[in-house]
TrEMBL record:
<protein>
    <submittedName>
        <fullName>Branched-chain amino acid transport system ATP-binding protein</fullName>
    </submittedName>
</protein>
<dbReference type="InterPro" id="IPR003593">
    <property type="entry name" value="AAA+_ATPase"/>
</dbReference>
<keyword id="KW-0547">Nucleotide-binding</keyword>
<dbReference type="InterPro" id="IPR017871">
    <property type="entry name" value="ABC_transporter-like_CS"/>
</dbReference>
<dbReference type="InterPro" id="IPR052156">
    <property type="entry name" value="BCAA_Transport_ATP-bd_LivF"/>
</dbReference>
<dbReference type="GO" id="GO:0016887">
    <property type="term" value="F:ATP hydrolysis activity"/>
</dbReference>
<dbReference type="GO" id="GO:0015807">
    <property type="term" value="P:L-amino acid transport"/>
</dbReference>
<dbReference type="GO" id="GO:0005524">
    <property type="term" value="F:ATP binding"/>
</dbReference>
<dbReference type="GO" id="GO:0015658">
    <property type="term" value="F:branched-chain amino acid transmembrane transporter activity"/>
</dbReference>
<dbReference type="Pfam" id="PF00005">
    <property type="entry name" value="ABC_tran"/>
</dbReference>
<keyword id="KW-0067">ATP-binding</keyword>
<keyword id="KW-0029">Amino-acid transport</keyword>
<comment type="similarity">
    <text>Belongs to the ABC transporter superfamily.</text>
</comment>
<dbReference type="InterPro" id="IPR003439">
    <property type="entry name" value="ABC_transporter-like_ATP-bd"/>
</dbReference>
<feature type="domain" description="ABC transporter">
    <location>
        <begin position="2"/>
        <end position="235"/>
    </location>
</feature>
<keyword id="KW-0813">Transport</keyword>
<dbReference type="InterPro" id="IPR027417">
    <property type="entry name" value="P-loop_NTPase"/>
</dbReference>
Amino acid sequence: MLTMKRVVAGYGGGRVLHGVDLECARQTITCIVGPNGAGKSTVLRVISGLLTPTEGEITVDGGPIAGRSAEEILRRGITQVPQSHALFPAMSVQENVLMGGYLIRRDRKLLRERLDLVRARVPLVAERANDSAGNLSGGQRRMVEIARCLMLDPGMILLDEPSLGLDPRSLAGVADLINELNRDGVTVLLVEQNVRLGLGLATHGVVMEGGRVRLTGTAAEIKNHPEIASLYLGKEPTT
Ligand SMILES: Nc1ncnc2c1ncn2[C@@H]1O[C@H](COP(=O)(O)OP(=O)(O)OP(=O)(O)O)[C@@H](O)[C@H]1O
Ligand SMILES: [Mg+2]
């Protein structure tokens, strides 16, 4: 589905990614972990087209996307769930979700169909349709942020720290939603500080450090890697 080869990128003159290789097979959930400043968010930004890599290749189903605009990449079915506080608080939940269908806004019928699908997938969107987004809890907002991205029926979603600021119950709801989307065929790439949650959810893991990929493997392999277990999970590896 997605392949990155020797991707170099940065901000201004400074390099942040020093040749990143990454592969996400169709319908997998890949979780990137690593210390602050490792370049995790930057990887998501170069994939979604918010940042243009200076070197390297990025392909989606074999087609190159490096250097394409964010809108073109969106049209190819890759959507990034924005950081928290991305909803318009004074607008209703449904209005916020409809904004996610901006690229298909001229096709009223399709827009309606998609909205129905999203309402079925994320019941909160129907239940709180006319409430102001500003009145939702943090966990509910996160669900609506994800729901909004579903309006374009993406093949792949990118999530940057979906667990940030959520209580355990909301966390479980978001994890369930990610799992359900994946079961429906969506490929997921997420960054998580909550390593236990992230690798628990994922099929594959990637460890980044200093703008490079240090380790890749199945989520179980990464979870049980001695360094990861002691660094991030605060325990000895289990079997
Ligand atoms: N907009 C920006 N302008 C300049 N430098 C940036 C910008 N965004 C990030 N950086 C720098 O790039 C490096 C990697 O940042 P990035 O946000 O990708 O790290 P991260 O792994 O997501 O970290 P965190 O876990 O703290 O979110 C950091 O040194 C950061 O200071
Ligand atoms: Mg980050």
